């Protein structure tokens, strides 16, 4: 396992709540009564057994409480009904030994049993067991002639109700934490998708143009060395522009200009030997659509240069739409790569839709149009 995986696993494991454990330990002071009673009877076997049972009862109670605290952020790690029943049964058995050996002071274990039942069992089952415990305290005390223990019965119900309130509050807080973590994970996934889409759009276009220019430069080396040098200068500039675009996308401050994309499209088409017809002005395009139209031109021209084998390409822009048409091969181009998927996502976010059309007898049209509002 790598160091990163170890760190991630450590971060995923919930940390124990030491304050919660201290809270449980503090309440063990109420088991002092049974311990004192057992000490006073230390010369008898019942006193010794009672003290041992009391210490074991307190230790098991703390272990159960600590286990719940450790796993309260991971519901699947909380003991199932069978395990919970076994742990609660062990506590009841120890409490029974305390009562038999130490007498009425052993009833002090009843509130601890009620709290544990609320922690381990579903709310309905915990409530029923609490009522049974409260009734048992009354029955045992009266039948044994120990007097009136109604106050202890009330303490059993109050302790269970208080723990139910604490559990409910913890549950709501944990739900809020899980929802926040889920939102953070969705935000991370969305950001990864955005970066993948932007890098595809940026590098797909830039590398296509660079490839076309490199092929052109290679052909010009033996024909026109001066023009070949000019193309090499363009290659260097395009490479620098692509690097800047990638950095902008990674930083999250990507900027894309509609006039600049039209200029780049004109240059890419001419480098590929495709006759271009592009608009001279984009002033009519509203601000909220300019970035979307720029991405559309970038994706459309990339596909024209890479896949169309066209000889002509036209870009048409108005206030509500942008369209790239060519006279190349249309077959299969409506589903090329991830570019159109990303473009559809951008269009949907801007309230527009993507329309792809095969033009008879041959040709292809990519259009993004703002949807009409009703």
What does this structure look like?
The protein has 374 residues and is α+β, with helices and mostly antiparallel strands. The protein has two domains: 181 residues, no CATH class; 118 residues, Heat Shock Protein 90, CATH 3.30.565.10. Helices cover 68% and strands 8% of the residues. A five-stranded mixed beta sheet has the order 1-2-3-5-4, covered by helices on one side. Helix 6 packs parallel to helix 8. The chain is rod-shaped, with a radius of gyration of 38 Å.
Count of domains: 2
DSSP strand count: 5
Q: Write the element-wise H/E pattern from the N-terminal end onward.
A: HHHHHHHHHHEHEEHEE
Global Rg: 38 Å
Distance between the termini: 57 Å
Shape, per Cα inertia axes: rod-shaped
Number of helices: 12
Helical residue percent band: 55-70%
Lateral strand order in the biggest sheet = 1-2-3-5-4
Helix- and strand-based class?
A: alpha+beta
- Major β-sheet profile: 5 strands, mixed
Flag low-confidence runs: 1-16
Write down the oligomeric state. Answer: single chain
Round the mean pLDDT to the nearest integer and report it. 81
Percent of residues in β-strands: 5-15%
Keywords:
374 residues; alpha+beta; Heat Shock Protein 90; 5-stranded mixed beta sheet; 12 helices; disordered N terminus
Can you describe this structure in just a few lines?
The protein has twelve helices and five strands. With 374 residues, the chain is α+β, with helices and mostly antiparallel strands.
